[in-house]
Amino acid sequence: MRWGGGGPAFGWTGDGGERESGVRFGEPVAFRVGGARRCLGVWRGGRRTPCPGREAVPVRGTRAQCGECAGIDRAHSVAADTVADDPRPYHVYLAWFGDGLVKVGITGVGRGSARLLEQGAVAFTWLGRGPLMAARRAEELLRVALGVPDRIPYERKRGVRAGLAGADGRGAELVRAHAVAVGLGGGWPASLERLPCRVVDHGEAFGLDAIDRVDAVVSGLAEGAVVAGTVVAAAGPDLHLVEPAGRWLVVDTRVLAGWPLERASMEAGGAGFVVREVPGVQGGLF
């Protein structure tokens, strides 16, 4: 699932090239896995280079890449600290996912807020802007000074999403953390411009008010698996569905990558996929 100016969308690749289809809240979605999972290749500069051998990849996991393609991606990855001479400017940000779940991170200025949407950040504010290495130094400084991580597992984000406070109360932690961050003296890189606190809330974009609960999370697929339900919300890579039988299901769309998907009927849903147990709900293979 991708995020852009038009909201969430599925990204598709095939013989006809690349395309997208919008994800719309309140509409049904139903698909069947129609074949084996294959490597999707390498992404460079917003373009995909197909895997030459169309290698098979494990049926479990969130990364649909063979070892060779994954290695090429890592060799040109800002996140993996393998690119130190990127001349583009970067933002340093604080992101909020729920009470006590604040993280610090960086993203390219040219990407706008896309990275925050992709992570499922319910609210965020910029902290600074400057060169890559200055942004990296500030990120580490703030991680230690604020006592916040640079990564939060998706399981924790999902666990609090159904019980979040209203938009009016979601920015308080960010405002406090921002005030501490910009007030730090030594250590803040001279080349990094400090930015004012302007909290942006993604509750409406994600459709958070429609999430009643989470009963199960799809964590793996297999050939022949069928997933179907009505879309109620989306956040980061997560698609929130209500199945025809009433179960509230989260599909981690990263596990869809690399699978050939076909249209299916709503009545055929709930078969052949693996769900991760959510507290109070019996998980297993359906």
Number of β-strand runs: 17
What percent of the residues sit in helical stretches (DSSP H or I)? Answer: 10-25%
Q: Can you list the strand order of the major beta sheet?
A: 16-4-13-14-15-12-17
| pLDDT averaged residue by residue | 87
Task: Give an overview in words.
This protein is α+β, with helices and mostly antiparallel strands. Helix content is 19%, strand content 31%. The protein is built from six helices and 17 strands. The strands form four sheets. The chain has a seven-stranded mixed β-sheet. Strands 7, 8, 9, 10 and 11 form a five-stranded antiparallel β-sheet that branches. A three-stranded antiparallel β-sheet has the order 1-2-3. A hairpin with a 2-residue loop joins strand 13 and strand 14. The chain starts with a strand and ends in a 9-residue tail after the last strand. The C terminus is likely disordered.
Task: List strands and helices in order, with pairings.
Blueprint: E1 2-4, E2 7-14, E3 17-22, E4 28-33, E5 42-44, E6 47-49, H1 67-75, E7 90-98, E8 101-108, H2 114-119, E9 123-130, H3 132-146, H4 154-161, H5 172-182, E10 193-194, E11 200-201, H6 203-206, E12 216-220, E13 226-235, E14 238-242, E15 248-252, E16 261-263, E17 274-277
Parallel strand pairs: 12-15
Antiparallel strand pairs: 1-2, 2-3, 4-13, 4-16, 5-6, 7-8, 7-9, 9-10, 9-11, 12-17, 13-14, 14-15
Which key features would you list for this structure?
31% strand, 5-stranded antiparallel sheet, 17 strands, globular, alpha+beta, 19% helix, 6 helices, 286 residues, disordered C terminus, single chain, 7-stranded mixed sheet
